Task: structure prediction
Amino acid sequence: MHLTLEFGGGLELLCESIKIHHVDVNPKAGEDKLTMRDLLVWVKSNLIKERPEMFMKADSVRPGVLVLINDCDWELCDSLDAVLEEKDAVVFISTLHGG
Result:
C-alpha cells in the first residue's frame, strides 16, 4: 500500500531530517487491512533512526504528537484502529517544543 508520511515539529530529526516519506507498507501476514497500529510499528522499525522513545510510548505515539490522516485528526478516525487506504497521507507533528 502506497502511503505518504510527513513528520514535523521536530519529529523529522528522528528520521534523518527527512520530512516527507513516500513508502510502501503491507498489512501483516494473514490480514487484508492496514491499521494505524500496524503503521506505527512499521515506522518505528523502518524510519525512526534515533530516540524512538521521542516518537512512541507503548504501542501509540507519545502525548503531544498530533496525528492527521488525510488532514483529519486521527482521534476522529478511531486512532490506533483506523484503517488506512491506498495513497492515504499521514502526518505526525510534535506539539511540544523546548525552550
Q: What stands out?
A: The helical segments are 36-46.
